[in-house]
Design a protein that fits this description.
Chorismate Mutase Domain, subunit A, 4 helices
Length: 98
């Protein structure tokens, strides 16, 4: 689709959809920003653990993180299975960053 087709498609959107899409885009950008902030905190934790001679990965702590996220998902009526998968993936990304 070229630029002109995209402009035409944007004009044909139902009322309010453009604004909602913009809101979703902003939320997505914030999610990515927060992932970056989280990864920075993880890297600092890894530095402290290295200096203290501790294991970098802590399966018990990881399970606590996932369980807490699932509890919060339940409170917010979000799909627990998918939230569990998302947080496990976040933890995998964090582990690879070490």
């Amino acid at each position: 689709m070229n630029s002109q087709d995209e402009d035409s498609a944007q004009r044909q959107l139902p009322a309010g959809l453009r604004e909602i899409r913009s809101e979703i885009d902003q939320i997505d950008a914030e999610i990515v920003r927060l992932l970056s902030v989280r990864l920075s905190a993880v890297m600092r934790a890894f530095q402290i653990k290295r200096a203290a001679g501790l294991a970098l990965l802590d399966p018990d702590r990881e399970e606590q993180i996932v369980d807490h996220a699932v509890e919060r998902a339940t409170e917010l009526e979000l799909p627990k299975k998918q939230v569990r998968k998302i947080f496990r993936q976040i933890l995998r990304i964090s582990a690879k960053a070490r």
